[in-house]
């Protein structure tokens, strides 16, 4: 169980790293397309559009930023590769099938125990309900002491008995 949690942590880390890699790729493409100037790549195809000088970086700054983006991409890709290599080998299908069969058997046993516990609970509930019902029925037949009777010495107890029977 603990080992599976460790694998899940690695998978979560891998998911986070891939998400960061995609973010770096996305921002790199956005930077390269928005901060570069148009360059003529073929003498046969003229440049038809010019970009405002404030909207693109100088060639030396652009090259430095490109190198930084490449470094970030490579570093993140290596982190992803390391996490992929640290994942466990997949379990053979036969072992998975056996493990699932064992879990199924354990689940059936647990379900049977649960059903028995529920049955026992219902039985105990019925017993307690009947016991309470019989006790309440017996209480209604207890004679009430008269507080005004000169033979009653404990007036407070008689008053309490009288009060509970009136309710």
Automatic annotation (TrEMBL):
Q: Which UniProt keywords apply?
A: Activator, Coiled coil, Nucleus, Transcription, Transcription regulation
Molecular function, one GO term: transcription coregulator activity
Subcellular location(s): the record lists: Nucleus
Matches recorded under InterPro entries: Med7/Med21-like, Mediator_Med21
The record, for Gene3D superfamilies, names:
Mediator complex, subunit Med21
Record text on subunit structure and interactions:
Component of the Mediator complex.
Role noted for this protein: Component of the Mediator complex, a coactivator involved in the regulated transcription of nearly all RNA polymerase II-dependent genes. Mediator functions as a bridge to convey information from gene-specific regulatory proteins to the basal RNA polymerase II transcription machinery. Mediator is recruited to promoters by direct interactions with regulatory proteins and serves as a scaffold for the assembly of a functional preinitiation complex with RNA polymerase II and the general transcription factors.
- In Swiss-Prot or TrEMBL terms, this protein is called Mediator of RNA polymerase II transcription subunit 21
Which organism is this protein's natural source?
A: Rhodocollybia butyracea
Q: What is the lineage of its organism?
A: Eukaryota, Fungi, Dikarya, Basidiomycota, Agaricomycotina
